[in-house]
Amino acid sequence: MQRAGTSIRLNHVSKSFSIGRKTVAAVDAVDLTIEAGEFVSFIGPSGCGKSTILRMVAALEAPTAGQVTIGDLPPSEMAQHHRLGVAFQDHALLPWLTVRKNVELPFRIASRPVNDQQIDQLLNLVGLSEFDRARPKQLSGGMRQRASIARALILQPDVLLLDEPFGALDQVTRRHLNIELQNIWARNAITTILITHSVDEALFLSDRVVVLSGRPGRVVKVLPVPFGRPRSPSVMRDPLFHQLADDLTESLEGYVGSEEP
Amino acid sequence: MLTGLRTAKLLLVQISGIVGLIVLWQFWVAARGLNTIVLPGPMSVVLQLLNEPAVYFWNGLHTLALALAGLALGTLLGTTVAVVAWSSRLFEGILTPLGLIFSSVPIVALIPVIARILGYDVRTELAIVILISFFPLFVFTLKGLKALPPGASDLFQTLGATKRQHLAWLALPASLPSWLTGFRIAAPHAVLAAIVAEFLMGTSGLGHVLEGARSDLQMQRALAASLSATVISVTFFLLSAVLEQRLLRNR
Ligand SMILES: Nc1ncnc2c1ncn2[C@@H]1O[C@H](COP(=O)(O)OP(=O)(O)O)[C@@H](O)[C@H]1O
Ligand SMILES: [Mg+2]
Predict the structure, then answer these.
(1) Is A258 a residue whose pLDDT tops 60?
(2) Is residue A241's pLDDT more than 90?
(3) pTM score
(4) Higher pLDDT residue, B219 or A161?
(5) Range of the domain at B14
(6) B177 in contact with A at a CB cutoff of 8 Å?
(7) pLDDT at residue B2, as a whole number
């Protein structure tokens, strides 16, 4: 398989927020390198700082201590060079644009000519060819997430950052999209961070699964996933898969959710 | 969207109220035996309109042109100033209280001041209509520029968008519904402001006709002028409603 993309280095990264006079530590000394072309998932209890980690890689937050680098560059420079692909839990599609125009948007922002052929290909890949003229509100939740992932991929970014993109979907749709995501990713394994709270999703898609503690998020376990690629859905019926899933669930237990009120 | 039949039905319902009011008016005038100086009946008002159509047409046109030009310029100004306020916190801090003050001063109080500066003529009338149209556009555009879809601002940041791209691709399109609300509010106010300005400045237009009729105790003329003004006002309102429906059809 072709390995593409750029490594991501989290160098003793911490982040705290001040809310009024209080300081809330969200992420505590996370030290991790994600190799070029690697797919890494972060799982952890709700409110443990998963999104905060992703937002630091996406240039949306600056660490309080430590650094994040993508290749040799800080995330903000990667953003300026249009090298980041990000998909959020709430799809963030622009409601006044059609699906096609939404997927085109990164070309406009990067001031590059719109490559129609590439858009056709990608829409086809995510199964939205028939819906390219639809507005986001006319789509199902799963279709919106597909469009949002297509938009994240259209400029062939160096890294793909996914924050619970399937979090709001039902189990069947979610499994379906997991399989699709794997197929998309398999075409040119792009360095990917996936935030999720689904152990199965993390195991099925990842090269490594990072388990975070309750807030402040600390790395408590890094599990290399031993299954070869491409993975068929039948992997999920493998006894080893079940055992790993149980292990992960167990290491998650004991941390109750710690969402700020 | 409404189907043709439903639109027709709705129109019928809406018109029935107005017709009812006119019938009531005619009855009341007849029953009380009021003379035309106190309150003329609807028929005599219509006759008055038909008697001197040119007066109402040309003065109506004056009012219409004044209101349209003022509304257009006020819209342009309000939108531009809102964008400037959006672009920097400093400008927003300076412009918001200024806008608020200008909008709270009654136009009747502003007219003499503006007339001193611009002269007792159509320029002052235009300035007043612009001022009245400006404020709703400013407030609603600024509000709309900040009413972004969830996550969109983060998205633009990760895409590496410049401030200008933020405006063109995100904030301006997001502001459209709110901008239209501002426009729908400003449109009938522009007509009202035009008439008040004409009334006080006294050059021409329906406001001027009203003023003349009032001093000569010509109630028929006054009501005929009011009727013409209402037609303009309603037209403005309907036009802005149609504009709104057109532009938001795909949202
Ligand atoms: N912008 C912010 N301001 C203040 N607190 C925040 C902010 N973003 C996140 N937090 C807090 O940081 C903690 C981690 O949040 P988050 O990263 O969203 O958790 P997760 O994605 O794992 O559910 C939470 O307690 C949350 O309330
Ligand atoms: Mg989160």
Answers:
(1) no
(2) yes
(3) 0.86
(4) A161
(5) 1-33
(6) no
(7) 52
Closest-approach residue (CA) in chain A for B248: A96
More confident residue, B50 or B102: B50
Q: What Å distances lie between residue B10 and A245, B1, B13, CA to CA?
A: 62, 13, 5
Closest by Cβ to A92, choosing from B150, B250, B251? B150
User: How many folded domains does chain B comprise?
Assistant: 2
CA A51 to centroid of ligand 2, rounded, Å: 4
Domain range for A110 is 95-156
Closest residue by CA, ligand 1 atom 18: A51
Examine the fold and report which residue of A156, A180, A200 is the final residue of a domain before the chain moves on. Answer: A156
pLDDT (average), residues A144-162: 94
pLDDT at residue number A226: 95
Q: What is the C-alpha to C-alpha distance for residues A62 and A79, in angstroms, rounded to an integer?
A: 13
CA of A40 to the centre of ligand 1 (A): 21
Q: Is B206 exposed, middle or buried (0-12, 13-18, 19+ CB in 10 A)?
A: buried
The last residue of one of the domains, among A111, A140, A156, is A156
Is residue A186 located within the same domain as residue A109? no
Average pLDDT (A46-70) is 96
